[in-house]
Amino acid sequence: MIQRQEQFEREQRAARLREAQEKSGLGGYRKLAQRFGWNENTVKGHLQGKSSFGTVAGKQYAKAFGVSFQWLYHGTGNPDDIDIEPASIIDVPLISMISAGHLAGHEGITDFSEFPTVSALDLPEGDWIALRVEGDSMNKISPPESIIFANRRDKRLVHNACYIIADEQGNATYKRFRSDQEPPFQPASYLDIPPPTLTGTITVIGRVRRSVIDM
C-alpha cells in the first residue's frame, strides 16, 4: 500500500513537472540540462516519473519554470501562486568591541557559548556576530545603541560597505570602507569625527550587513 501511494505521488509530481516545463517554453530535458547545468538523465527521469525528486530539486524546478513550489511539489494551490517562505530565526552571539579585536589574532575566539545572544530574522547564510554600537562615529547608519550584525565569512572589501576591523594591537572598530580616501576606513557621522588611528596591518573581522535599533 505504501509503495503504491509513493508511486502515485511520484507520478502526479512528474505530471505537474511536465506541465510546468511545457508551459515554460524552455525546451526538453537536453535543453534544460544545458541551460541550467543539470544532469540530463536526472531531469529525464524526473519528467518521466521514473525517479522521484526532493525539495531542493523541486525548488530549483519551480524557480526555473516560474511556478509555485507548493503546487509543483505538494499539489496544493495553483501554479501561479506566490510561495511564502517561513521566516528563519537564529541566535547570534552578542560580543563587545574588545572581544571583536581578539578575533583578529591567530588564536581568536572559537567558542561563543558563554556570550549572550540576540535573535535575528532571515539572515543569509554566514558566520554571524552581533555588536552593540557605542559613540557617534557611524550615526548616519547606526546610531548609538544600535545592534549591528557582521558576517565573518564576508571579508571582501567593497567601496562604501561597512566592516568590523582590527589593528595589530587588537583595537577593533566599526567603519565604512572608502577606497578613494586615506585612510580608507572612515566614519559615517553627522559630526566632525576624525578617522580612527590604527597600528600596523588591518584585519577585516567581517562585513556588517544589518543595523537595527529598538524604538
TrEMBL record:
UniProt superkingdom: Bacteria
Residue ranges occupied by any Peptidase S24/S26A/S26B/S26C domain in the UniProt entry: 93-182
InterPro entries: Cro/C1-type_HTH (IPR001387), Lambda_DNA-bd_dom_sf (IPR010982), LexA/Signal_pep-like_sf (IPR036286), Peptidase_S24_S26A/B/C (IPR015927)
Coiled-coil ranges from the UniProt annotation: none
GO molecular function list: DNA binding
Protein name in UniProt: SOS-response transcriptional repressor LexA
Source species of the chain: Rhizobium paranaense
